[in-house]
Amino acid sequence: KSPCEQLPATPTMSDAVRRPIVYGSEATPFAKPAENEHTHEWTLYVRSPHGQDLSKFIRKVVFKLHESFPDPVRTVEKPPYELKESGWGEFEVQIRLFFVDPQEKPVLLFTCLLVDVLMLFVAAAV
Fold first, then answer.
1. Phi, psi of 33 (to 5 degrees)
2. If we measure between CA atoms, which residue out of 73, 72, 83 comes closest to residue 25?
3. Could you tell me the pLDDT band of residue 18, with boundaries at 50, 70 and 90?
């Protein structure tokens, strides 16, 4: 048999390309609450743990925030895949990854934005 005949007709799990990603949030407390009562600036992100360019694989990232935010569904179409905002509470966030390869289905991830927990740590340190 030729080498081409030995290859599987469709990709298998062993043929998959895997790239590690890191996703989550970071929050920084304001020195004093803002007029809108926001206590923290925060960032939601999807990153490479090694600083690699994810745009070779990820076409866009859609963040779904709490419905109390104006335009709670936010799309980021180029790196850095980050969303910066401010707020005062915690909530669950949906992160949907869309890939460059149209054969790949989007992946849905969940994370929690936890600014109140950070506020407790700051209060304990004072």
1. -55, 145
2. 83
3. confident
What are the Cα distances from residue 82, in Å, to 26, 54, 118, 125?
11, 12, 20, 29
- Which runs of consecutive H residues, i.e. helices, occur in 1-126? 3-6, 115-125
Q: What are phi and psi of 20, to 5 degrees?
A: -75, 145
DSSP-derived secondary structure letter, 106: P
The answer to whether 80 and 45 have CB atoms below 8 angstroms apart is: yes
Q: Provide the edge-to-edge strand list for the sheet that holds 81-87.
A: 22-29, 40-47, 81-87
Q: What is the pTM (predicted TM-score) of this model?
A: 0.77
> In this structure, are residues 40 and 50 in contact, taking their beta carbons and an 8 Å threshold?
no
Structure tokens at 95: 């992160």
